[in-house]
Design goal:
By secondary structure, the protein is α/β, with parallel strands linked by helices. The chain has one domain: Oxidized Rhodanese, domain 1 (3-Layer(aba) Sandwich), CATH 3.40.250. The protein is built from 4 helices and 3 strands; from the N terminus they run H-E-H-E-H-E-H. It has a 3-stranded parallel β-sheet with strand order 2-1-3. It is globular and about 40 Å long. The N terminus is likely disordered.
């Protein structure tokens, strides 16, 4: 079912893999780019760079094996963006 979903909706999503390198090498969604969950400073910089080049009509999807690492990366990105936004509002 997931494969069907990906094929049908592919142009609307950009996939980011938040798993360690050894898991990423074994299997991944075709076209996914890796964001390092173990090095959040580098991983966040990479994620921000990738997302800044994501077309507005695409949705970025962070994924991992269970959901824990992708949630960590997503939470850190949201915190960072909220901090940046609050700097511009004050």
């Amino acid at each position: 079912m997931l494969c069907y979903f990906i094929v049908v909706t592919w142009p609307y999503f950009i996939f980011k893999d938040a798993r360690p390198e050894k898991e990423f090498v074994v299997s991944r969604i075709p076209g996914a780019e890796r964001v390092d969950p173990d090095n959040l400073i580098e991983g966040l910089a990479r994620a921000e760079d990738i997302l800044s080049h994501t077309p507005a009509d695409q949705t970025a999807v962070l994924y991992c094996s269970v959901g824990y690492r992708s949630c960590l990366v997503a939470d850190k990105l949201m915190q960072r963006w909220q901090e940046e936004e609050s700097m511009y509002l004050t």
